[in-house]
Amino acid sequence: MSPLSYVSVTVLLFSVVGPLVALSIFRFRVADIVPVARSTILDGMSDGVMVMDSQNRILDVNSLVQQLVGRSSSEVIGKSVEEVCPGWLDQTDSRNETQTGKEIVVNLEEQRIYDVRTSSLTDWRGNLVSQIVVLHDITDRKKAEMQLRNIFEASKLINSTMDINEIFKFISDSCQTLAGFDHFTIFLVSKDKKHIYPAFTAGNIGNKTGRSVLEYGEGLVGHCIATRETVLLGNAHKNERAKKIYSVTEPFMSHVVVPLVIENECVGALHISNAVENAYNQKDVDVLKPLSEVVSSAIRNSNLYNEIKRFGEEQEEKIKDRSKRIEILLNARQELQKETSWERGLSTIVESMKMLGFDGAGAFLVDLKGEKLIFHLGKGDDLPEAGTSISLKRKEYFGVKCVLEKKTIHAEDSTSVEGKQLVESNSFVWVPIVVQDEAFAALAAFTTKSKRITDEDVKDLEILAGMCAAFIDRTRIQIEPVVEKALKTEIKHQLNPREGFLVLEKKPEKSFEIFVDLVTHGISGFVVSREHPEKVKEKYKLLKTPMLWLSRTETKDAINPDDLPKLSYIIDDFTRKSTESVILLDGLEYLIIHTGFETVLKYLHELRDIITLNNSRLIMPVNRETLSSKDSNMLEREFTIVEHFTS
Length: 647
What we know:
By secondary structure, the protein is α+β, with helices and mostly antiparallel strands.
């Protein structure tokens, strides 16, 4: 037997291997491989990791969790989670089960939000052995979500109204929520694109910005709008452009200016500022940019809405104005349909013209025989006196040209046309009144203020002129010359044609004697008398001679004493149709009582011209005692005195 047979090899091997193992452990730290891997992996993670046993005692934590709880691993391992991290389990509701998608809020220097994922480890019997909790920082994501939510809510608010002031207020509130500010301004570009003005302000300095109007391209705001580039300044005091708005940008250091672009056109800018240096960063800019798109869209929609609203209001106003004008025209038509007096009819026309909104309106009568255009009546300031006339040879006058050419003459701007007016005006229109292809009169309207006469105004006047023409044609009395008798005997009372005669008598007996003598010897006659025609015919045996009753009574064969233009037209028409005629006008005193001596005298002047031009004679009985000596002398000076009878 060998001497080593009684020696144990195992013992010998342990005596050799033991020191080697000790050497490897203590010299070469073979056993530290697992801790090295753990430190490298767990502490290098961006997420926090915490291991707990079944009793929620902490077994291990990585460096991020240590930072969150403010303790080292040696201070927390072995302690309960509730002791180290009060409230965490309550926030996650993590009690011995696997969970995902839970969140906790940790308040350090700033509030942070973490997504908590818990994984449970069990033995072969299903008993909980430990839990691994992973904390993922989602603060930035939550802020982004909050900003998006705020932008969405702001968008809903901004688009919930078309009132631009409400929109601006919502924008201001949204900017305060998203980025914060000490002062807020919305700048808009003027329509001529030459200036930039503050449309809305909020913050510490109130309405001071409202007095600050910039040239296009001036200052921070002008640069932003001109270049469509967002401006971010941490210290505006170091930037010359920021000092352009006195007392507005100077007090503040941090500025953000975001352009407002509508359909590729920059219409303004959002401007927020803060007294603190570097109060804003790129994240604030990134938040305000999508808001500016919402704002631009809201401003565009509001502008479109307001344009449509204004258009609707303008159309409504036009419809209202048109309805009023139509009502005026219809009322004028109704008045003319029941009227027989030319004087009242012309007054209705002129009143209607004035109601249509002209500063001045008038009616001018045409005297073709006398070749004159005569102002008859009107409404407004600076009108000529009644009876003022213009020779029809003065074609430089617009009124003369109107009646001669029988066409409307309209000047929206009187300075743009060459010609003369009776009244100085900014805008005017002349419309002829044509009766059976003859210019009977003309309507004239003018404005002296800012309002211009439009094509619509002209159409309304032409409607009135048409009404007036129809009224004249309907109410005019056309008397055909008729010879009462053609006696072969000698005429007792020879009166020269083309003259007017005053027969001075208390009653018109001598006047009728002369008239009957003439009409029974082949001369056509026409009577206008205060006596009813039937009485005159019966008294003087005049069966064929036409007559009119001078009376306010609305009956056939009556002429109103106020309707002298109509009477002139009737006499003119009668005398033009006769080669030789005689007119008996009985009732001068009645005319003077109702219209005044001056009016009657002007009418008699016109009547004398008609008599002269149409080879007629005018007989007028008058009682001198009814007139003043002045009036009597004026009449006697204008007409031939036949005889003074006192019958």
